[in-house]
Amino acid sequence: MFHFTTKKIIFNRLSSPVFAVLAADPNFLELLLVDDGSSDRTAALGLRLANREPRIRLVSHNRNRGLGAAIRTGLQEAKGELILYTDADLPFDFKLIPQLLTLATPDNVVVGRRTNRGEGLRRWLLTKGYNLLCHYLLGLHLKDVNFACKIIPRSALSGMRLNSEGSFIDAELLLECRRQELAITEFPLTYYPRIRGQSKLSSSTVIFGILSEMVAYLFRPTYISYSRFPLAARRRDGSSMV
């Protein structure tokens, strides 16, 4: 499942590495593109790609609703027992997808963890601060909460209560996994900074939205009932990181 909002993404650059890695895998069902109400020709270009390849499918919002809404739509629409969510700007080496999939099970979520940064000091400080906030306030003992690489088992979706419209969605996904007592394995990945467009995650509007949704989650009755049990991430060798 891929989220995109700009026509500047070269669609063949997106689809080619996915199909190069997964085309021969009989368990690979589809490449789902989620267009979050783009105002340019993004949807038309995505539809053209979908018309050329039956395993590519496009889902569009009629207006821009935000990252969280796009991911929730993708999770609802996606087929298959395991769903990989990532960004359409290829943030990691897709040749590693089969290795990631071998770690994912119905009771184990796999999340990518960046081993490098490439977006400047401000973004690094904001990311570090957010991960620490999630660690101490929410009990998410993970090194990279927001990286766009997560494999979610379909069986877990029916038990999730996902409400985020914005960038709190990654933390909300992990918290809902914890509520269902799923294990989480972090996988180290080299991060490839985007070469087109600019991330909005460090904008004051997005930061305020994240904090607002975080506070709302803290007051959910379901969170209060299980928050005393922290989430321990596992390394690739299966040992606890806590």
Number of helices: 9
Low-confidence stretches: 2-10, 237-242
Distance between the amino and carboxyl termini? 30 Å
Number of strands: 9
Return Rg in Å.
17 Å
Shape: globular
User: Roughly how much helix do the residues carry, as a percent range?
Assistant: 25-40%
| Fourth CATH level, the homologous superfamily | Spore Coat Polysaccharide Biosynthesis Protein SpsA, Chain A
Determine the oligomeric state from the structure.
single chain
Mean pLDDT: 85
- The largest beta-sheet arranges its strands as 3-2-1-4-7-5-8-9-6
The figure for the number of domains is: 1
> Would you list the SSEs in sequence order as H and E?
EHEHEHEHEHEEHHEHHE
CATH-defined architecture: Alpha-Beta Complex
Characterize the main sheet: 9 strands, mixed
Helix vs. strand class: alpha/beta
In short:
By secondary structure, the protein is of the alpha/beta class.
Describe the 3D structure.
This protein is 40% helix and 18% strand. By secondary structure, it is α/β, with parallel strands linked by helices. The chain has a single domain, classed as Spore Coat Polysaccharide Biosynthesis Protein SpsA, Chain A. α2 (42-52) links the parallel β2 (31-35) and β3 (56-60). It is globular.
